[in-house]
Amino acid sequence: MTKYIFVTGGVTSSLGKGIISASLAKLLQSRGYRVTIQKFDPYINIDPGTLNPYEHGECYVTEDGAETDLDLGHYERFLNTPTSKANNITTGRIYQNVINKEREGAFLGKTVQVVPHITDEIKRNFRILGESGDYDIVITELGGTVGDIESLPYIEAVRQFRWEIGSGNSLVIHLTLVPFLAAAGELKTKPTQHSVKMLLEYGIQPDILVCRTEHHLNMDIRKKIALFCNVNINAVIESIDASTIYDVPLLMLKEQLDKTVLTKLKLSHKNEPSLENWKDFLGRLKNPTADVRIALVGKYVELPDAYKSITEAFIHAGAAKECKVRVEYIPSESLTPGNAVEKLKGLHGVLVAPGFGERGFEGKIEAIRYVRENNIPFFGICLGMQCAVVEFGRNVLGLENANSTEMNPDTRHPVIGMMEDQKTITNKGGTMRLGAYACELKKNSKAAAIYGKTSISERHRHRYEFNNNYLKQYETAGLIPSGINPENNLVEIVELKNHPFFVGSQFHPELKSTVANPHPLFINFVAASLAYARKK
Ligand code: GLN
To answer: What's the DSSP call for residue 330?
Structure first.
């Protein structure tokens, strides 16, 4: 039978529930258990696809085309197993399901209420992955902080669920903060006590407390927390600030979080976790032999979370090359023809980021012209690739005012345009080209050499595409469409001939980079930037 672990948060948000969940999952996985993590978010959007990145960070896309919370990216990067639509549920989705059932007449005669109808639907979703038979353990991370109005139905659903599946089959891990008061020179346990008290009011006794802290918890503090919060002393887990999120699994191992969990779930400890590859990755990450400066040109750079998967993919690729990648964020709006050279001076590579809308578009074009003409490694992702196509059209092919129809619907040279089947769609949510698509790489292309094969699959999230009417012109002039979708002939990658590294991908390679499998495009881009840095 599948065992269930719930992870709740107290005191404040941003304590790192996602990383704790992913780290615990990693430890359990490396002991031989089949584990997955799902995230329940208490907002009313059906999914985060329609949220501004400033509001919620990056929108992570799964193989099956779900637009999800960025924590799912952490789950995949840690576990190296794909997540799916079922791994991210929002209050909006829960209500939508219940309301659809109501319209179908499923509750005929009944008043539809939060308890039991919404809580039943939440519980049904808790179980979906567990009932697939694919997992021994399902970790459910509850978004938000205990005490929020929005979280209440979830907490109530957890209470009922635990009672229904019986003791030993589930546990609740509560993540709290143990702040350090500099003036008193002390760690304070009161916020943790209050947060647990609040959970108790809702009928939930947490089994394990993970205490986020800037200083080590000594025995006295641990005893105090244990006594006041009714948990065993070995269930008070210290989660000290770490220099990288990838340290957290090892920190949790040291605190024996995995053992405590397995004992409480009445599961065998099996083998000691085999984390050799993980430690090897950390060793390379922490002992770089070189340094490279890469610009990330984008419109949401004030909030680095908006580009989470890209920055993590750089960390994986940097470790693979034993090289410290310093990502320097450059707001695309700040780039003009006059200052692009100045702003990009001294950088060893430029990545132009994905994005939507006109703001900052022309700045990206300037950055690309500069790196194309000066043989500086360039990597364009999604909108970044589209910008490269527009730049090449304008400045090499001489297509005056060439553009994407996203930026100018009336351009004379729509080198990037919307696909026919997108034109009739009026809804915004979940209507882009989403999820994994196959791509065939041209033999002898740089892309094929990088991947080491010609059939690949990558994830997408966009509405606009390369306009194939211009394909011949581009190819003749040296911007090669090196990857094509075999089903609909859409251009998925372009690369520039006679340039050390100039690659644009319509897909998002960053979504598939993991600790175990750093993405080859990122590795090669970092290598090219490193080579450029050494030449200088
Ligand atoms: N706005 C562009 C499109 O919809 C690019 C999207 C992206 O960068 N993810 O096609």
So the answer is: E
Other Cβ atoms less than 10 A from the Cβ of 116: the count is 14
User: What is the DSSP annotation of 112-181?
Assistant: P-IIIIIHHHHHHHHHHTGGGTS-SEEEEEEPS-TT-TTTHHHHHHHHHHHHHH-TTSEEEEEEEE--EE
Burial level of 441, CB count in 10 A (0-12/13-18/19+)? Answer: buried
Going by the DSSP 8-state scheme, the letter that residue 233 receives in this structure is: G
Strand order in the sheet with 414-418: 403-404, 414-418, 464-466
Q: Point out the catalytic residue in the list 141, 255, 510, 519.
A: 510
Phi/psi-derived region of residue 385, left when phi > 0, alpha when psi is between -120 and 50, beta in every other case: alpha
Ligand 1 centre to CA of 63 (Å) is 18
In short, whether 229's Cβ falls inside 6 Å of ligand 1 is: no
Other CB atoms within a 10 A radius of the CB of residue 85 amount to 17
Residue 101 CB: number of other CB atoms within 10 A? Answer: 14
pTM (global) more than 0.85 = yes
pLDDT in tens, 169-207: 999 999 999 999 999 999 999 999 999 999 999 999 999
The structure tokens listed for 368 are 């690309």
Residue nearest to atom 1 of ligand 1 (CA): 356
Tally the C-alpha atoms within 13 A of residue 511's C-alpha that lie toward its C-beta: 32
pLDDT at 228: 97
Answer whether residue 49 shows pLDDT above 90.
no
Q: pLDDT for 149-162, tens place per residue?
A: 999 999 999 999 99
Whole-number Å distance, alpha carbon 232 to ligand 1 midpoint, is 50
Closest listed residue to residue 377, CA positions, set 536, 528, 534, 478: 528
Q: How many angstroms separate the alpha carbon of residue 50 from the centre of ligand 1?
A: 13
N- to C-terminal Cα separation, the chain? 60
Active site residue 382: yes
Q: Is 462 in the pocket of ligand 1 (CB under 6 A)?
A: yes
Q: How far is CA 282 from CA 214, 238, 241, 322, 371, in A?
A: 21, 21, 16, 10, 32
Length of the chain: 536
Which token pair is 25?
């999952």
188 residue type, one letter: K
Distance 504 CA to ligand 1 centre (A): 13
Separation between Cα atoms, residue 485 and residue 504, nearest integer Å: 15
CB 135 within 8 A of CB 129: yes
Beta bridge partners of 328: 295
- The candidate with the shortest Cα–Cα distance to 346, out of 324, 323, 370, is 370
User: Atom 8, ligand 1: which residue's CA is nearest?
Assistant: 354
User: Buried b vs exposed e over 496-508: b needs ≥16 C-beta within 10 Å?
Assistant: beebbbbbbbbbb
Token digits of residue 523: 């590795």
CB distance 464 to ligand 1 below 6 Å: yes
Q: How far apart are CA 365 and CA 361, in angstroms?
A: 7
